[in-house]
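Still learning folds. Look over my entry:

…
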Amino acid sequence: MRDIHLIYLFKFLKSMYFFSGVLIPFFTEWGGITFFQVMLLQTWFVFWTAILEVPTGAVADRWGYKTSIIYGVAINVLAVIVYVLVKSFF
């Protein structure tokens, strides 16, 4: 992997959680959901992150890390699109 520096930079910036300070106000004001519902969404996110750790490791072992990262970014983009487009919690 010749772009390993870019991957490390991406992981570093992602781990800074720049969006965390505005996440709850964003969802409560713009999304119109309660604090409890925001925490349910966060729980759902953490649950699936934990569940998908092993399968994504298997994808990386079988088809390569670059493919695994591409799939991960694609799923992340889809999740953001769903968050933006869905206007109600249920």
Notes: The mean pLDDT is 83. The two ends are 42 Å apart (CA to CA). The chain is about 80% helix and 0% strand.
